[in-house]
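// run 5 | inverse folding | seed 20
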């Protein structure tokens, strides 16, 4: 699977998440931002930045 961080535009290593599914949350290993998985299609993962402001 392939995920590009929407914040830093780098490839995120999703091999750490072997059971990735929509609504999961992952962390970009480049910029450290939290990403919520929106969709996975044909190996391409779409994610959006999770607003951590509480
Ligand atoms: Zn990033």
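// decoded
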């Amino acid at each position: 699977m392939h995920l590009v961080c929407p914040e830093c535009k780098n490839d995120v290593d999703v091999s750490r998440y072997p059971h990735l599914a929509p609504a999961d949350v992952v962390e970009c290993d480049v910029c450290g931002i939290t990403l919520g998985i929106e969709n996975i299609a044909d190996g391409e993962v779409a994610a959006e930045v999770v607003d951590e402001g509480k």
